[in-house]
Structures are given as structure tokens and as C-alpha cells.
Amino acid sequence: MTKLVLFVDWVLKRSLMLLMAAIVLVVCWQVLSRFVLTNPSSMTEEIARCLLLWIAMLGAAYAYRTGQHLGLDIVTSRMPPLWQHRIAFVLTAAVVVFSSIVMVWGGGELVWLTFELNQMSAALGIRMAWIYLVLPLAGVLIAFYGVCQLRCLAAKIQLVPAEESE
After folding, report:
1. What digits encode the pLDDT tens for the residues 133-162?
2. CA geometry: angle at 21 spanning 19 and 23, to 5°?
3. Could you tell me what percentage of the chain is helix, strand and coil, using 3-state DSSP and rounding each to the nearest 5?
4. Which of 44, 45, 67, 56 is nearest to 20 (CA)?
5. Residue 43 carries which DSSP code?
């Protein structure tokens, strides 16, 4: 399991790096074409919007993996270790259920619906289903990381830190 988690971490981290580099280049080209060349590109705004969506969703999965997501531990940090462990287990299970139902199943329904309706992107001319595909993909990643965390919590071991995947 450790090797699989580290491989998924590596792929996700590299994908986010590529997406960030791409959005920087696209936005720079947008500014350059608009203000320097005075001939704004018609596709750069939509490309940047799609890249931002992919970065946000995949970044949320990576933030969940690294523990950098928003969380309040004011109450749980004052509890005994046994209760902290139990609450962590319940909350992680809730994350797995939420990401599976809302993101994977609901996001999959959205992708399927936009694919069936042949909804196209205005400027790019591609199917919106390809853009929305990030929702179930991020849900699968979050559920995967949650299940790995549940296994580690059940065995009372620490999940390998994300920094070791570098």
C-alpha cells in the first residue's frame, strides 16, 4: 500500500506542477496579447478558467493527503488520545462517504449528463464533460487517501508522510 500511495502522491504532485506552469503561461499570454499586442486572445480566459478548476480540485485532494486542508482541532486536541483516535476514524470515514457519493457518483452523473447532451465549451470547442471529469477524479483520489488513512487508523500506524514521495 505504501508504494501505491507514494506513486499516487508523485503523479498528483507532478500533475499539479504542470497545471500551475500551464496557467501561468496562459495568463501571461493573455496579458501580453491584450495590453502589448492589443489583440486579445479569445481562448486564454476559458483555458485559464478550466485550468483553475483542475488545479483547485486536484489541489484539494493533495491538501487532504498532506493534512493542509481546513480543519479545526480546538475541541479534539483537548480530548484523551483514545477519543482523538475514534473521532479521527469517524471523520475520515465521513470524508470517504462524502467524496464517494457527492464527488465520484454525483460528479460522474454530471460528466455523463454533459457528455450525453453534447455540451460544448464556447471558446475551446471541446466537450464540457472533459472539463468536469476532474470532479469524480478528485473524488476518487480523496476516497483513496481516506481509505488508506482508515486502514492506518485501524492498525494504529502512521500513514507514510507525503514528503517522502519526492
Report:
1. 999 999 999 999 999 999 999 988 877 777
2. 70
3. 75, 0, 20
4. 56
5. S
Tell me how far apart the alpha carbons of residues 136 and 141 are, in angstroms, rounded to a whole number: 9
Asked whether the beta carbons of 79 and 111 are under 8 A apart, the reply is no
Residue with cell 500500500: 1
- Rounded to whole angstroms, the maximal C-alpha distance in the chain is 64
Q: What percent of the chain has pLDDT over 70?
A: 97
pLDDT tens by residue, 36-76: 888 888 888 899 999 999 999 999 999 999 888 777 677 77
* Residue whose C-alpha cell reads 508504494 in the numeric block: 3
Q: In the structure grid, which three cell numbers stand for residue 155, read together?
A: 492498525
The three cell numbers locating residue 147: 481509505
Residue that the C-alpha cell 483555458 belongs to: 47
pTM surpassing 0.85? yes
Helix (H, G, I), strand (E, B) or coil at 34: helix
What is the C-alpha separation between 56 and 76, in angstroms, rounded?
28
**For residue 53, what are the contacts with CB-CB under 8 A and spacing of at least 6?**
131, 134
